[in-house]
Amino acid sequence: MGVRSTSQEMSRETQERRAHSSSSSTSLVTSLMKSWRISSSTTSSSGSSSKKKFTQSHSGNPTTTGTYSDTHSHDQNPLRHSNELGMYSLSRSSSSDGNFDAMSKQQNSTNRSLSSSNNTYSPLRYNSPSTNQIDSPRASLMRQKHNKHSHHNQLYYQHNNSSAISESSAHKKSSDKYFEDLDEDWSAVIDNYNMPIPMLTNGGNGKSVSGYGNNGDSRNNLSRTSTASSMATSLTSNTLTQSQSLQYPQLPNLNTLDIPDTEKSQEEMENEREVQELNSIMQRITKFDNIIKNKHIINLQDLRQLSWNGIPKPNRPIVWKLLIGYLPANTRRQESLLKRKRQEYSEGLKHTFSDEHSRDIPTWHQIEIDIPRTNPHIPLYQFKSVHDSLQRILYLWAIRHPASGYVQGINDLVTPFFQTFLTEYLPPSRIDTVEFTDPDTYLTEEQKMDLEADTFWCLTKFLEQITDNYIHGQPGILKQVKNLSQLVKRIDLDLYKHFEKEHVEFIQFAFRWMNCLLMREFQMDTVIRMWDTYLAETSPETILSFASSNQVSNSSEGLMSPHTPLSRKPATFSTPNVDHVSPASSVGRSNLGANAANQAIASPVNVSSSDDSKRFSHTSLNEFHVFVCAAFLIKWSDVLCVMDFQGIITFLQNPPTKDWKETDIEMLLSEAYIWQSLYQDATSHWLK
Amino acid sequence: MSNPITSIKLVLLGEAAVGKSSIVLRFVSNDFSENKEPTIGAAFLTQRVNINDHTVKFEIWDTAGQERFASLAPMYYRNAQAALVVYDVTKPQSFIKARHWVKELHEQASKNIIIALVGNKIDILEDNENERKVAREEAEKLAEEEGLLFFETSAKTGTNISEVFLGIGEKIPLKGLEDEHNNNGLNVTEDQRINLANTANASENASACSC
């Protein structure tokens, strides 16, 4: 096997890890953030040099069997403790790079003993240094956020809790033991999580640790012997992260590469893969069904947690409506509420378009000229019936929100709702045709009005969260742009200084990112996946206020259970009901304390909330979005740092995201989440 | 150095959907698309043209037209050497808006700024002259009063597009000879005002940015 094919293997490995990491381990995410950034930027710039990619991530990340010699006891403040760990992992994984200098400085006090024995390729970074970090509640917390299967996490965590954390000294010496344990642990979840096994198996083998990175051939052999059969099955874990599958560019590649060394025929592999993919999709759908079907009260906390990692297409319309607070959690009230809201919408239309109501001509005209140029590349948005629907929705919204009125960009924001809710009316087998089919061919007039009403109300709920973005002067956007620059200054000082040197101002490229929530930067299917997470991030208080306005809020019924995983006060923008809500929040917090003990393992997110409610008290959709933008920008840091003004602006206006898959978006969201977790404390000082 | 390059910072202003982005797209890529997404914030594009053995590089900021984004415009026109104020010959309202932009530029922008008044979408008139809602004479009168270049264009067919930019390019070196000596002069002064610590950072950056 030549060097070339070896490097191909390497890049394949990278891709595989990328695909996998977003769905399982955040510690992997942390350790990969840098290398992925390199790899994506390399891909984008040249699209060829997988070898270079390898070298860069290799040299850029001196991997160490890092042992964490700080107080490893399970102390009273797991968050603080784990926060250090998180920081530590980041600063270390990029310590030679300089981009995280600021962070490193902050973390100088962190005790660490680095035994730099494993200067190996990044899969092993996952295995050796990062696995140590998994021990931390922080990492576990973050993993939880990205993990589809909380019960696996639970096992995992319990396991680590006993074997790793309490025996930290023993653990320090022997990562092998850890890998064995991990292996057992993963094997328990083999039906869902095959992906990590090959890596972990290799990592558990002391010899392979060195062979892996230093010798591509031996690595390949190892991975084949140990994982040949699981290779194909491992692919399916990708599909856990999304409802539709078969879109991963690396899949066919993997198959062809593996076939010569396996005894399975290609057909067999294909079949097996398809079955596994279907299974995992079905499993995920079942998970959602378990939460939303046949329940009197839907547990929105669970729903948010599960949705953060993506919602299967068949579940998406109803879950979005629940997350945004349009549908009440009390299922018995859903029908009547829908009926009422839909009627309200159609009456609103009637009134608005009646003679007694004079048309706001400029607004109508502005919407009229924008609608044909909304998503011009998607056939769905060229149909006359869709134009008419969107025109009605946007116009009604605009005249009902005079402080904001219609602002360009809102025409973009309405489309994910519209398109997603359209799929409700399509048979499951045709969901993917939604972008190509004229809704008039399958919608009755009545259904169309229902669809419009649902879209209208969800858009209304959504824009409520980001009102400041569209009122006069757009203060919400200006603040976000400022926050983004401050964040980048802290996360990636080199990039920040380079922008300064080239006279690039953040507002020159980031205004659109904020105004359209990055929708212009991504393809629609990835945007919709992104919104799964964004809607899971919408602040509960606003939803609560919406609920109370609909007379469905009743604390005993628990529209929002008090210990929601995302119980954060939307402090960065004005929510009229903050005061009204805060008593409930404080109750929630005290509950959290009690619940935390019980739920610490099952739901690390709650651990964080209990110990650190302040930390989460200043977040909102807008704020999370800033972190997503930061992660997005920093992803291209290496390319941007060698560009001049013109290059930078041109690049950022048209970033190479055309081929981004849901896994790429998930990686981005994971990174954003980590940045948010790490910088939350800091941001309370400078993100005002 | 044999072929000196003059950079011209140019900004496009005008009501939404008059065709600002399309004019730029035609000039930069010789392309046209019927339904272009509305510009949000501003878009930056460049194009080089040769004018009298002299290379002129246009650095173009194409701004968003909607009123709500108007507060961003000063950031882009403040240091511009040239501006295209665009209206739609079939939309009288857009001409009113153009008048406002001309007035604002005279009040707020640099004194030497070259302004071209551009009536776009004349291709619509080819089929039906009745579609014209802004008389050519009216626009010419405004151009004369305010000292503007004036063109009627069609980004769709390409009519007069390059003439607009050539017209500006020919006027700029005559007006501001110093620009030829210092291509980046405008940039530097602009940004020094924004960022006083610039020089210190720049030197530090040079060593730090080996990523």
From TrEMBL, chain A:
A cellular component term (GO) from this record? Golgi stack
- Tell me the ranges covered by the Rab-GAP TBC domain, including all copies: 310-538
Bias type Low complexity, positions? 21-32, 39-49, 108-122, 222-247
Q: What is its main location?
A: Golgi
Q: Which spans does this entry mark as compositional bias, Basic and acidic residues?
A: 10-19, 71-83
- From which domain of life does this come? Eukaryota
Q: Which UniProt keywords apply?
A: GTPase activation
Pfam families per record: RabGAP-TBC (PF00566)
Protein name (database record): GTPase-activating protein
Single GO molecular function: GTPase activator activity
Does the UniProt entry include the keyword Glycoprotein? no
UniProt-annotated stretches for the region Disordered: 1-136, 208-258
Family annotation (InterPro entries) = Rab-GAP-TBC_dom (IPR000195), Rab-GAP_TBC_sf (IPR035969)
Ranges of Polar residues compositional bias?
58-70, 125-135, 208-221
Q: Where in the cell is it found?
A: Golgi apparatus, Golgi stack
Keyword Hydrolase annotated:
no
- Coiled-coil stretches noted in the UniProt entry, renumbered to this chain: none
Automatic annotation (TrEMBL), chain B:
So which domain of life are we looking at?
Eukaryota
Recall the taxonomic lineage recorded for the source organism.
Eukaryota, Fungi, Dikarya, Ascomycota, Saccharomycotina
Question: What is the recorded name of this protein?
Answer: Vacuolar protein sorting-associated protein 21
Recorded hits in InterPro entries, A to Z, give: P-loop_NTPase, Small_GTP-bd, Small_GTPase
Keyword set includes Repeat:
no
Question: One GO molecular-function annotation for this sequence?
Answer: GTPase activity
Q: Which UniProt keywords apply?
A: Nucleotide-binding
Tell me the gene name.
VPS21
Pfam families, alphabetically? Ras (PF00071)
Q: Which PANTHER family match?
A: PTHR47978
